[in-house]
Amino acid sequence: MSTLMLEEALSAPDAVARQLAADPLSYARLGQALQEVPPTSVLTIARGSSDHAAHYLAYLVMARLGRLVTSLPMSLITLYQSRIHCEGLLSMAFSQSGQSPDLIAPTQFFRAGGARTVAFVNASGSPLAAAAEHVFELHAGPEKSVAATKSYIAQLVAGARVVAAWQQDDGLRAALNVLPTALAQAAKLDWTAALPVLQSAERLFVLGRGTGLAVAMEAALKLKETCGIQAEAFSGAEVKHGPMALVRDGYPLLVFAPRGPAQAGLLAIAEEMRSRGGRVLLAAPIGTPGAELPLVTTGNEDLDPIALVQSFYPMVEALARARGFNPDVPPNLAKVTKTH
User: Fold this and answer.
1) Segments of the chain assigned E as strands
2) Contact 319, 199 (CB under 8 A)
3) 242 band by pLDDT with thresholds 50, 70 and 90
4) Less Cβ around it within 10 Å: N or C end of the chain?
Protein backbone atom coordinates (compact mmCIF):
# COMPACT_ATOMS: atom_id res chain seq x y z
CA MET A 1 0.00 0.00 0.00
CA SER A 2 1.33 3.41 -0.98
CA THR A 3 0.19 6.35 1.10
CA LEU A 4 0.42 10.06 0.46
CA MET A 5 2.48 10.39 3.61
CA LEU A 6 5.11 7.96 2.34
CA GLU A 7 5.14 9.46 -1.16
CA GLU A 8 5.62 12.95 0.22
CA ALA A 9 8.26 11.88 2.73
CA LEU A 10 10.25 10.18 -0.02
CA SER A 11 9.94 13.28 -2.22
CA ALA A 12 11.67 15.47 0.38
CA PRO A 13 15.18 15.20 -1.14
CA ASP A 14 13.86 16.58 -4.43
CA ALA A 15 11.94 19.31 -2.61
CA VAL A 16 15.10 20.31 -0.77
CA ALA A 17 17.04 20.39 -4.05
CA ARG A 18 14.38 22.74 -5.51
CA GLN A 19 14.56 24.99 -2.50
CA LEU A 20 18.36 25.15 -2.49
CA ALA A 21 18.30 26.19 -6.16
CA ALA A 22 15.86 29.02 -5.43
CA ASP A 23 16.10 32.44 -3.78
CA PRO A 24 19.87 32.60 -3.12
CA LEU A 25 19.89 36.40 -3.33
CA SER A 26 17.00 36.73 -0.89
CA TYR A 27 18.80 34.65 1.73
CA ALA A 28 22.03 36.54 1.09
CA ARG A 29 20.31 39.92 1.48
CA LEU A 30 18.68 38.95 4.76
CA GLY A 31 21.94 37.48 6.06
CA GLN A 32 23.85 40.64 5.14
CA ALA A 33 21.23 42.86 6.76
CA LEU A 34 21.32 40.83 9.98
CA GLN A 35 25.09 41.00 10.06
CA GLU A 36 25.22 44.74 9.44
CA VAL A 37 22.44 45.59 11.91
CA PRO A 38 22.08 42.64 14.30
CA PRO A 39 18.71 42.28 16.03
CA THR A 40 18.48 43.13 19.71
CA SER A 41 15.96 40.32 20.21
CA VAL A 42 14.84 37.30 18.18
CA LEU A 43 11.65 35.30 18.39
CA THR A 44 9.91 32.52 16.49
CA ILE A 45 6.19 32.15 15.77
CA ALA A 46 4.89 28.66 14.96
CA ARG A 47 2.78 25.71 16.03
CA GLY A 48 2.94 21.94 15.61
CA SER A 49 5.59 20.55 13.28
CA SER A 50 6.45 24.08 12.22
CA ASP A 51 7.26 24.94 15.82
CA HIS A 52 9.72 22.04 15.91
CA ALA A 53 11.41 23.48 12.82
CA ALA A 54 11.51 26.86 14.55
CA HIS A 55 13.12 25.18 17.57
CA TYR A 56 15.88 23.85 15.31
CA LEU A 57 16.54 27.30 13.82
CA ALA A 58 16.54 28.82 17.31
CA TYR A 59 19.14 26.35 18.52
CA LEU A 60 21.39 27.05 15.54
CA VAL A 61 21.10 30.81 16.06
CA MET A 62 21.89 30.53 19.76
CA ALA A 63 24.74 28.04 19.31
CA ARG A 64 26.37 29.59 16.27
CA LEU A 65 25.57 33.30 16.58
CA GLY A 66 25.20 33.74 20.33
CA ARG A 67 21.78 35.39 20.03
CA LEU A 68 19.09 34.27 22.45
CA VAL A 69 15.84 33.24 20.76
CA THR A 70 12.36 33.14 22.30
CA SER A 71 9.38 31.11 21.14
CA LEU A 72 6.45 33.53 21.20
CA PRO A 73 3.29 32.52 23.09
CA MET A 74 0.95 33.88 20.42
CA SER A 75 -1.83 34.54 22.93
CA LEU A 76 0.24 37.48 24.20
CA ILE A 77 -0.85 39.25 21.01
CA THR A 78 -4.10 37.54 20.06
CA LEU A 79 -5.74 37.31 23.50
CA TYR A 80 -3.86 39.53 25.95
CA GLN A 81 -3.11 42.41 23.54
CA SER A 82 0.37 42.81 25.02
CA ARG A 83 2.21 45.82 23.61
CA ILE A 84 5.51 44.06 23.04
CA HIS A 85 8.38 46.42 22.19
CA CYS A 86 9.36 45.97 18.55
CA GLU A 87 12.53 48.04 18.37
CA GLY A 88 15.35 45.89 17.04
CA LEU A 89 13.18 42.77 17.00
CA LEU A 90 13.52 39.98 14.43
CA SER A 91 10.47 37.72 14.21
CA MET A 92 10.48 34.50 12.17
CA ALA A 93 7.21 32.67 11.48
CA PHE A 94 7.01 29.10 10.19
CA SER A 95 3.94 27.60 8.53
CA GLN A 96 3.01 25.14 5.82
CA SER A 97 -0.31 26.75 4.91
CA GLY A 98 0.18 30.32 6.13
CA GLN A 99 -3.49 30.41 7.17
CA SER A 100 -3.55 30.39 10.96
CA PRO A 101 -4.73 33.68 12.51
CA ASP A 102 -2.43 33.36 15.52
CA LEU A 103 0.64 33.42 13.26
CA ILE A 104 -0.68 36.17 11.02
CA ALA A 105 -1.73 38.63 13.76
CA PRO A 106 1.64 38.72 15.59
CA THR A 107 3.50 39.07 12.30
CA GLN A 108 1.30 42.01 11.34
CA PHE A 109 1.72 43.55 14.80
CA PHE A 110 5.50 43.28 14.78
CA ARG A 111 5.84 44.60 11.24
CA ALA A 112 3.62 47.56 12.00
CA GLY A 113 5.79 48.25 15.04
CA GLY A 114 8.97 48.40 13.00
CA ALA A 115 10.35 44.90 13.59
CA ARG A 116 11.95 42.84 10.84
CA THR A 117 9.52 40.06 10.01
CA VAL A 118 10.30 36.80 8.19
CA ALA A 119 7.96 34.03 7.07
CA PHE A 120 8.91 30.54 5.94
CA VAL A 121 5.82 29.24 4.20
CA ASN A 122 4.90 26.65 1.59
CA ALA A 123 1.99 28.72 0.29
CA SER A 124 3.53 31.92 -1.06
CA GLY A 125 0.13 33.53 -1.72
CA SER A 126 -1.07 33.00 1.85
CA PRO A 127 -2.09 35.66 4.40
CA LEU A 128 1.06 34.98 6.44
CA ALA A 129 3.24 35.60 3.40
CA ALA A 130 1.40 38.88 2.81
CA ALA A 131 1.95 39.90 6.42
CA ALA A 132 5.74 39.43 6.49
CA GLU A 133 8.45 41.66 5.08
CA HIS A 134 10.78 38.81 4.06
CA VAL A 135 9.13 35.68 2.63
CA PHE A 136 10.98 32.44 1.94
CA GLU A 137 8.95 29.89 0.05
CA LEU A 138 9.67 26.28 1.01
CA HIS A 139 9.26 24.99 -2.57
CA ALA A 140 8.01 21.67 -1.18
CA GLY A 141 5.07 21.50 -3.58
CA PRO A 142 1.47 20.75 -2.59
CA GLU A 143 1.28 18.68 0.59
CA LYS A 144 -1.83 16.49 0.63
CA SER A 145 -1.10 14.25 3.59
CA VAL A 146 -2.40 15.67 6.87
CA ALA A 147 0.83 14.62 8.58
CA ALA A 148 3.46 17.07 7.35
CA THR A 149 6.75 15.52 6.19
CA LYS A 150 8.45 17.18 3.23
CA SER A 151 7.39 20.68 4.33
CA TYR A 152 8.92 20.09 7.79
CA ILE A 153 12.20 18.98 6.25
CA ALA A 154 12.08 21.99 3.92
CA GLN A 155 11.56 24.27 6.95
CA LEU A 156 14.62 22.79 8.67
CA VAL A 157 16.67 23.48 5.55
CA ALA A 158 15.35 27.03 5.20
CA GLY A 159 16.30 27.76 8.80
CA ALA A 160 19.81 26.42 8.24
CA ARG A 161 20.10 28.55 5.09
CA VAL A 162 19.29 31.70 7.06
CA VAL A 163 21.92 30.83 9.66
CA ALA A 164 24.53 30.11 6.97
CA ALA A 165 23.77 33.46 5.31
CA TRP A 166 23.75 35.37 8.60
CA GLN A 167 27.00 33.77 9.74
CA GLN A 168 28.46 33.83 6.22
CA ASP A 169 29.61 30.25 6.80
CA ASP A 170 30.84 28.80 3.50
CA GLY A 171 31.26 25.37 5.07
CA LEU A 172 27.62 25.19 6.10
CA ARG A 173 26.56 26.49 2.69
CA ALA A 174 28.60 23.78 0.97
CA ALA A 175 27.11 21.10 3.21
CA LEU A 176 23.60 22.36 2.43
CA ASN A 177 24.28 22.16 -1.30
CA VAL A 178 25.02 18.43 -1.10
CA LEU A 179 22.31 17.68 1.47
CA PRO A 180 19.80 16.26 -1.07
CA THR A 181 22.18 13.39 -1.79
CA ALA A 182 22.47 12.57 1.92
CA LEU A 183 18.69 12.78 2.31
CA ALA A 184 18.16 10.38 -0.59
CA GLN A 185 20.48 7.92 1.18
CA ALA A 186 18.73 8.50 4.51
CA ALA A 187 15.33 7.74 3.00
CA LYS A 188 16.53 4.25 2.03
CA LEU A 189 17.92 3.22 5.43
CA ASP A 190 16.31 0.22 7.10
CA TRP A 191 14.53 1.16 10.33
CA THR A 192 12.23 -1.87 10.34
CA ALA A 193 13.84 -3.05 13.61
CA ALA A 194 11.58 -0.52 15.33
CA LEU A 195 8.33 -2.05 14.09
CA PRO A 196 8.05 -5.16 16.30
CA VAL A 197 9.12 -3.12 19.34
CA LEU A 198 6.57 -0.35 18.79
CA GLN A 199 3.66 -2.16 17.13
CA SER A 200 1.91 -2.81 20.45
CA ALA A 201 3.35 0.14 22.40
CA GLU A 202 0.94 2.47 24.15
CA ARG A 203 3.51 5.04 25.28
CA LEU A 204 7.18 5.82 24.84
CA PHE A 205 9.86 8.44 25.24
CA VAL A 206 11.77 10.01 22.38
CA LEU A 207 15.08 11.41 23.59
CA GLY A 208 17.33 13.94 21.87
CA ARG A 209 19.44 16.92 22.78
CA GLY A 210 20.96 20.01 21.18
CA THR A 211 20.18 20.30 17.48
CA GLY A 212 18.58 16.85 17.62
CA LEU A 213 15.91 17.75 20.17
CA ALA A 214 13.78 19.44 17.50
CA VAL A 215 13.48 16.19 15.51
CA ALA A 216 12.77 14.21 18.69
CA MET A 217 9.85 16.58 19.28
CA GLU A 218 8.69 16.07 15.71
CA ALA A 219 8.98 12.29 16.01
CA ALA A 220 6.89 12.27 19.18
CA LEU A 221 4.19 14.31 17.46
CA LYS A 222 4.08 11.97 14.46
CA LEU A 223 3.87 8.91 16.72
CA LYS A 224 0.87 10.52 18.44
CA GLU A 225 -1.02 11.65 15.37
CA THR A 226 -0.40 8.75 12.99
CA CYS A 227 0.06 5.79 15.35
CA GLY A 228 -2.01 6.64 18.41
CA ILE A 229 0.98 6.25 20.74
CA GLN A 230 1.37 8.56 23.74
CA ALA A 231 4.89 9.58 22.80
CA GLU A 232 6.72 12.30 24.72
CA ALA A 233 9.95 14.01 23.71
CA PHE A 234 12.54 14.93 26.31
CA SER A 235 16.06 16.22 26.38
CA GLY A 236 18.48 13.45 27.31
CA ALA A 237 19.33 15.57 30.34
CA GLU A 238 15.77 16.52 31.29
CA VAL A 239 14.52 12.93 31.30
CA LYS A 240 16.50 12.34 34.50
CA HIS A 241 14.44 14.96 36.35
CA GLY A 242 11.44 12.75 37.03
CA PRO A 243 10.26 11.12 33.77
CA MET A 244 12.70 8.21 33.97
CA ALA A 245 10.82 6.91 37.01
CA LEU A 246 8.49 5.37 34.41
CA VAL A 247 11.26 3.42 32.70
CA ARG A 248 11.17 -0.26 33.63
CA ASP A 249 9.92 -3.62 32.38
CA GLY A 250 10.41 -3.08 28.67
CA TYR A 251 9.30 0.57 28.53
CA PRO A 252 10.18 1.64 24.97
CA LEU A 253 12.49 4.56 24.22
CA LEU A 254 13.68 6.03 20.93
CA VAL A 255 17.06 7.67 21.48
CA PHE A 256 18.27 9.96 18.69
CA ALA A 257 22.06 10.30 18.89
CA PRO A 258 23.46 11.94 15.75
CA ARG A 259 26.98 13.38 15.73
CA GLY A 260 27.78 16.45 17.80
CA PRO A 261 28.51 17.57 21.36
CA ALA A 262 25.35 15.94 22.70
CA GLN A 263 26.05 12.48 21.30
CA ALA A 264 28.20 11.07 24.12
CA GLY A 265 25.61 11.92 26.75
CA LEU A 266 22.80 10.41 24.68
CA LEU A 267 24.72 7.17 24.22
CA ALA A 268 25.29 7.08 27.96
CA ILE A 269 21.61 7.68 28.74
CA ALA A 270 20.67 4.92 26.28
CA GLU A 271 22.86 2.50 28.20
CA GLU A 272 21.46 3.68 31.53
CA MET A 273 17.88 3.21 30.32
CA ARG A 274 18.74 -0.32 29.19
CA SER A 275 20.11 -1.05 32.65
CA ARG A 276 16.79 0.12 34.15
CA GLY A 277 14.87 -2.35 32.00
CA GLY A 278 13.89 0.00 29.19
CA ARG A 279 13.67 -1.26 25.60
CA VAL A 280 15.95 1.21 23.87
CA LEU A 281 15.90 1.77 20.12
CA LEU A 282 19.09 3.72 19.48
CA ALA A 283 19.40 5.78 16.29
CA ALA A 284 23.06 6.61 15.69
CA PRO A 285 25.59 6.70 12.84
CA ILE A 286 26.33 3.37 11.17
CA GLY A 287 28.87 1.43 13.22
CA THR A 288 27.87 2.88 16.60
CA PRO A 289 27.71 0.04 19.17
CA GLY A 290 24.14 -0.80 20.14
CA ALA A 291 22.54 1.20 17.33
CA GLU A 292 19.62 -0.68 15.76
CA LEU A 293 18.51 2.32 13.68
CA PRO A 294 21.28 3.58 11.37
CA LEU A 295 21.87 7.26 10.57
CA VAL A 296 23.44 8.90 7.54
CA THR A 297 26.01 11.60 8.20
CA THR A 298 25.87 14.83 6.18
CA GLY A 299 28.47 17.41 5.22
CA ASN A 300 28.04 19.19 8.56
CA GLU A 301 27.01 17.65 11.88
CA ASP A 302 24.47 20.44 12.46
CA LEU A 303 22.56 19.10 9.44
CA ASP A 304 22.58 15.47 10.60
CA PRO A 305 19.21 15.83 12.40
CA ILE A 306 17.60 16.61 9.03
CA ALA A 307 18.84 13.30 7.65
CA LEU A 308 17.65 11.61 10.85
CA VAL A 309 14.05 12.71 10.45
CA GLN A 310 14.19 11.73 6.77
CA SER A 311 14.93 8.15 7.93
CA PHE A 312 12.27 8.30 10.65
CA TYR A 313 9.31 9.24 8.44
CA PRO A 314 9.11 6.01 6.37
CA MET A 315 9.35 3.97 9.57
CA VAL A 316 6.53 5.81 11.32
CA GLU A 317 4.35 5.54 8.21
CA ALA A 318 4.88 1.77 8.15
CA LEU A 319 4.25 1.60 11.90
CA ALA A 320 0.93 3.42 11.52
CA ARG A 321 -0.25 0.89 8.95
CA ALA A 322 0.99 -2.01 11.08
CA ARG A 323 -1.13 -0.67 13.95
CA GLY A 324 -4.21 -0.47 11.73
CA PHE A 325 -4.21 3.28 11.07
CA ASN A 326 -4.37 5.20 7.81
CA PRO A 327 -1.54 7.73 8.23
CA ASP A 328 -3.10 10.00 5.61
CA VAL A 329 -6.22 10.49 7.73
CA PRO A 330 -5.27 10.85 11.40
CA PRO A 331 -8.31 10.87 13.72
CA ASN A 332 -9.80 14.31 14.50
CA LEU A 333 -7.15 16.23 12.52
CA ALA A 334 -7.35 18.52 9.48
CA LYS A 335 -4.65 19.68 7.05
CA VAL A 336 -5.07 23.36 7.93
CA THR A 337 -5.47 24.21 11.62
CA LYS A 338 -6.66 27.72 12.43
CA THR A 339 -6.15 28.81 16.03
CA HIS A 340 -6.48 32.21 17.65
Assistant:
1) 41-45, 69-71, 89-95, 116-121, 134-137, 203-208, 230-235, 252-256, 279-285, 293-295
2) yes
3) low
4) N
Q: Where does 96-151 show beta strands of DSSP type E?
A: 116-121, 134-137
The per-type count for the chain, helices as H runs and strands as E runs, is: 14, 10
Q: How confident is the model at residue 139 (pLDDT cuts 50, 70, 90)?
A: very high
The DSSP bridge partners found for residue 42 are 69, 90
Quick check: 335 pLDDT over 80?
Answer: no
CA distance 340 to 337: 10
Query: Quick one: the chain helix, strand, coil %, rounded to 5?
Result: 50, 15, 35
Annotated catalytic residue 335:
yes
What is the rounded distance in angstroms from the CA atom of residue 288 to the CA atom of residue 294?
Answer: 8
Cα(126)–Cα(97) distance, integer angstroms = 7
> Distance (Å, rounded) from C-alpha 286 to C-alpha 284?
6
Q: Which of 144, 188, 240, 335 is catalytic?
A: 335
Q: Longest C-alpha distance within the chain, in Å?
A: 56
What is the C-alpha to C-alpha distance for residues 307 and 57, in angstroms, rounded to an integer? 15
Helix (H, G, I), strand (E, B) or coil at 11: coil
- Other Cβ atoms closer than 10 A to 45: 30
pLDDT at 50 over 80: yes
pTM: 0.95
**Above 80 in pLDDT, residue 247?**
no
At residue 167, the pLDDT reads: 98
The torsion region of residue 33 among left (phi > 0), alpha (psi -120 to 50) and beta comes to alpha
CA dihedral 218, 221, 222, 226 (to 10 degrees): -170
Average pLDDT of the residues in 205-227: 96
